[in-house]
Amino acid sequence: IRDMIFNQKMGLVLISGTTGSGKSTSMCAMIDFLLKSKSVNFLTIEHPVETIFPSQNYPKSIITQREVGKHSTTQSKAMESAVRQTLNMAMVGEIRNAHDAMMAMELAQSGHLIFATLHAGSVGESIGRIVEMFPAEQEKKVREMLASQYKMGMAQTLVKGLKGQTELVIEIMRTNADIKALIRQQQEDDRVFSMREILEMCAESTGTQSLDQALVKIFNKGNINEDIMMFNSPDMDALIYRQGKLGVKLSTKWDPTGASIDLAMANLLGGNEPQAEESGALGDLEASLAKLSG
Questions:
Q1: Which residues make beta-bridge pairs with 156?
Q2: How far apart are CA 184 and CA 102, in angstroms?
Q3: DSSP reduced 3-state for 97
Q4: Per DSSP, what are the bridge partners of residue 46?
């Protein structure tokens, strides 16, 4: 994520999650990294100010922090004022309505790197949430702006680890041609993919990952149990179906059908004799068939 964000010059970066998922903490950690690594003219707009960025900690950067209600009457007014300032980067807090969303996209469009949070469970859901803030007649325009300005997205949740620790599960998106087409709803007939499919296809080449991929990685490290992984999956049935591609083998508790197939195949390929229960069942079946034929 550090390399991705360091190389991002402009555009909208959205960190999504439910209440208490730590999205603001993640956003501030990325900003802290950038302020220490680059020379940045940085503005925050919050209501209230949740994180202080002391100027002495960032000698390379210029930092201005604005509190809605104290320095500006509304978040929207503060964002309008920001358009006229010579900024490199801004943090605009949570996007709650159409005006906030439009101002964030316009700030990004004017050449700024804009950080914001959104109440959404996944990167794909974040697109729908923003589009739904606007009247239906503006949908095409909003989708076009999102496709051009939504450069990087994250969605996160916190889960309980095996030793009582908190584990961060994070979905990561970097815009590419397929994602832009998905946002615009202009996918080619031979390239119709969901957001999850695009993130998983591009994982090795661009560093993206779906929530399921993130959960599987943490599970395979032994940090969470199988139940936590499954209960936090956006689509448990899809995870079961894709477990081979995701690099995980589920127990019979979650995949009894797959386990039965595996056992049958093992017996078939290995030439093993059926187990006691299977042998008894086969014997009963043979006896029944003999009576019917007799």
A1: 17, 170
A2: 16
A3: coil
A4: 67
In terms of Cα–Cα distance, which of 200, 286, 205, 204 is closest to 244? 200
Contact 195, 57 (CB under 8 A): no
d(CA 8, CA 115): 11
Check: CB of residue 12 under 8 Å from CB of residue 116.
yes
Task: Please report how the helices 139-149 and 98-109 are oriented relative to each other, as an axis angle in degrees rounded to 10.
Answer: 40
DSSP per-residue codes, 229-284:
HHHT-S-HHHHHHTHHHHT----TTT-HHHHHHHHHHHHHHHTPPPPHHHHHHHHH
Name the residue among 141, 123, 121, 122 with its Cα closest to residue 131.
141
- Helix 98-109 × helix 75-83 angle, to 10°: 20
Element (H, E) at 15: strand 11-17
As a residue count, the chain comes to 294
DSSP state of 10: S
The tens digit of pLDDT for each residue in 189-237 reads: 878 899 999 999 999 888 999 999 999 999 999 999 999 999 999 999 9
Does residue 34 contact residue 5 with C-beta atoms inside 8 Å?
Answer: yes
| CA–CA distances in Å: residue 155 to residues 26, 117, 180, 256 | 10, 10, 18, 31
Q: Which residues, listed in sequence order, are joined to residue 115 by a DSSP beta bridge?
A: 13, 91
* Furthest C-alpha separation in the chain: 96
Task: Note the pLDDT tens digit of each residue in 166-184.
Answer: 999 999 999 999 999 999 9
pTM here is: 0.83
Residue reference for tokens 């550090």: 2
Q: Which of 227, 223, 201 minimizes the C-alpha distance to 213?
A: 201
Tokens matching residue 178: 């397929």
- Dist. CA 112–CA 68, nearest whole Å: 20
Strands of the sheet with 41-46, listed across from one edge:
62-67, 41-46, 89-94, 113-119, 11-17, 150-160, 166-174
